[in-house]
C-alpha cells in the first residue's frame, strides 16, 4: 500500500555540506526540527557507499515512519533498502523505467526545469510520476549543473500546471528561511532545502526556523 | 534457466577508446572477430546514457545469443535491459546484494585484486558469485585506480584457488595479443581485453589475432 508523503519541508542531503558531521546525524537533527521528508543525494559516492549511507539514514528515520525516505537516482539502492521512492533528474533513468522497476507503490519524483520538462512528464501515463521538483528557483552553488533559474513567477506557472494534473510539486534551488514563505506562496506543495539545513551550525534550529516561515505562508 | 557463459575472450568496453566509432559498432566488429562475451563499462556515463548504450549493444548482439552481455556496476540497468549479468568492483554494490536483486540465473562477477579479495568472495554463500575478474595482471592506463599488478605468478595463484572453488576466472589488465597466451596459461578460463580491441584500427582483426594467440595456449 502506498503511504502518505508529506512534502512540506523536504531535505535533500549533501554529504560535503554536512561534514564534518555525518549525514545521518544531520538528518536526525533536521527531522527533530521539523523536516517532513528526506532525499539522500550523493552523486559522487560509489554505489556501495550510497547503499551504506541510505541504510544509515533509514536507521535514524526508523522512529519517525511518517518521514519518507527517497533516494536520488539510484534505483538499485532503493530496491535494496526498500526506500519509499526515487527522485530522478533529466540525466538519470527515465521515470517510466524507474516506475517499472519500483512498482506502483513507490514514490517517483522527477526534476522539472522548464515547461518542456513538465510537458514530458505530463505525456507519461498517469501514475508514472508522483512528484515534480521544480528547479532551480534560484541559481545555487550546490547544483552548478542546474538550468536557468525559474524565479517565483516561473515556479508559480509550473506549480499551477502540476497541481491541475494532480501531481505533487516541490520547489528547489536557493530556498532559505528568508524566502521560503514566498516560494511556498507560488502554490507548490512543499519546499526542498539543501544548504540551509546541511550547512547550518544547528540543523534542528534551521529546520525549525524554516517550518516557522512556512507556517505563515499565504495559501495558493 | 541459466545460460552458458563463454569467457574465452571477454571484451570490456571503453567508450572513449572506441571513439569516434560508437561502442556498439566496435562490439559488432569485435564479435565478428571472435569475442565470446561483452561487458559494457562506462563509469562516466549517466544512468540514462548507460541504459541507452546497453540497449544499443544488446541490439548488435541479438544475432549472436551465445555472446553474453554483462553490465558493469549498474544493477538497475541490468534489470531494465535483462542483461545476462553484472560485474562489480570493490566499490560497487556488494555481490550478495547484487545476487539478491538479480536472482539465481544471472551471472555475477566480482573484481579480485588480491588474495584477501578472493577470500572475501569465497566466504560468501556458494552460488553468490560466478566469476572473478583477476586484476590487474599488469598496470594499465585504462583503469588508473586499479591496485598493484598481480603479474603472471599472482594471477596463477588466484586462478588456481578460484578453480578449486568452482569459480570461473578471467584475467584483466594489460592483456594484449603478445601476452594473451601467457596469461591464459596461468589457468584462467578467459582473458579480458579493453584497449587492444577498443582502440584498434580494426577491432575485428584485433579480436581474431587474440583468438589465434589463445588457441595456441598451454593447458593449465
From TrEMBL, chains A, B:
E.C. no: 2.5.1.3
SUPFAM superfamilies for this protein: Thiamin phosphate synthase
Cofactor needs: Mg(2+)
Binding sites annotated in the UniProt record for Mg(2+): 73, 92
Function (record text): Condenses 4-methyl-5-(beta-hydroxyethyl)thiazole monophosphate (THZ-P) and 2-methyl-4-amino-5-hydroxymethyl pyrimidine pyrophosphate (HMP-PP) to form thiamine monophosphate (TMP).
GO cellular component: cytoplasm
GO molecular function terms attached to this record: magnesium ion binding; thiamine-phosphate diphosphorylase activity
Reactions it catalyzes: 2-[(2R,5Z)-2-carboxy-4-methylthiazol-5(2H)-ylidene]ethyl phosphate + 4-amino-2-methyl-5-(diphosphooxymethyl)pyrimidine + 2 H(+) = thiamine phosphate + CO2 + diphosphate; 4-methyl-5-(2-phosphooxyethyl)-thiazole + 4-amino-2-methyl-5-(diphosphooxymethyl)pyrimidine + H(+) = thiamine phosphate + diphosphate; 2-(2-carboxy-4-methylthiazol-5-yl)ethyl phosphate + 4-amino-2-methyl-5-(diphosphooxymethyl)pyrimidine + 2 H(+) = thiamine phosphate + CO2 + diphosphate
Keyword field: Magnesium, Metal-binding, Thiamine biosynthesis, Transferase
Family annotation (InterPro entries): Aldolase_TIM (IPR013785), ThiamineP_synth_sf (IPR036206), ThiamineP_synth_TenI (IPR022998), TMP_synthase (IPR034291)
Chain residues that bind 4-amino-2-methyl-5-(diphosphooxymethyl)pyrimidine: 39-43, 72, 111, 143
Sites where the protein binds 2-[(2R,5Z)-2-carboxy-4-methylthiazol-5(2H)-ylidene]ethyl phosphate: 140-142, 174, 194-195
Thiamine phosphate synthase/TenI domain: residues covered: 9-197
GO aspect biological process, one term: thiamine biosynthetic process
Family under the similarity heading: Belongs to the thiamine-phosphate synthase family.
This protein's record includes keyword Oxidoreductase: no
Source organism of the structure: Modestobacter italicus (strain DSM 44449 / CECT 9708 / BC 501)
Pathway: Cofactor biosynthesis; thiamine diphosphate biosynthesis; thiamine phosphate from 4-amino-2-methyl-5-diphosphomethylpyrimidine and 4-methyl-5-(2-phosphoethyl)-thiazole: step 1/1
Record's cofactor remark: Binds 1 Mg(2+) ion per subunit.
Gene that encodes the chain: thiE
Protein name listed in UniProt: Thiamine-phosphate synthase
Amino acid at each position: 500500500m502506498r503511504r502518505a508523503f508529506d512534502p512540506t519541508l523536504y531535505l535533500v542531503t549533501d554529504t560535503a555540506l554536512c561534514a564534518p558531521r555525518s549525514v545521518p546525524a544531520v538528518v536526525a537533527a533536521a527531522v527533530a526540527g521539523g523536516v517532513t521528508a528526506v532525499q539522500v543525494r550523493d552523486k559522487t559516492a560509489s554505489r556501495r557507499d550510497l547503499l551504506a549511507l541510505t541504510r544509515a539514514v533509514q536507521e535514524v528515520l526508523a522512529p519517525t515512519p511518517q518521514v519518507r525516505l527517497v533516494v536520488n537516482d539510484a534505483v538499485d539502492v532503493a530496491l535494496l533498502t526498500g526506500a519509499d521512492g526515487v527522485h530522478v533528474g533529466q540525466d538519470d533513468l527515465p521515470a517510466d523505467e524507474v516506475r517499472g522497476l519500483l512498482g506502483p507503490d513507490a514514490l517517483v519524483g522527477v526534476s522539472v526545469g522548464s515547461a518542456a520538462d513538465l510537458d514530458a512528464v505530463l505525456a507519461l501515463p498517469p501514475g508514472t510520476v508522483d512528484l515534480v521538483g521544480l528547479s532551480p528557483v534560484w541559481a545555487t552553488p550546490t547544483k552548478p549543473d542546474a538550468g536557468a533559474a525559474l524565479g517565483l513567477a516561473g515556479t508559480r506557472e509550473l506549480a499551477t500546471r502540476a497541481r491541475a494534473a494532480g501531481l505533487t510539486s516541490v520547489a528547489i534551488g536557493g530556498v532559505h528561511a528568508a524566502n521560503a514563505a514566498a516560494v511556498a506562496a507560488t502554490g507548490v506543495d512543499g519546499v526542498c532545502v539543501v544548504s540551509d539545513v546541511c550547512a547550518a551550525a544547528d540543523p534542528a534550529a534551521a529546520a525549525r526556523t524554516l517550518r516557522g516561515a512556512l507556517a505563515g505562508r499565504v495559501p495558493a
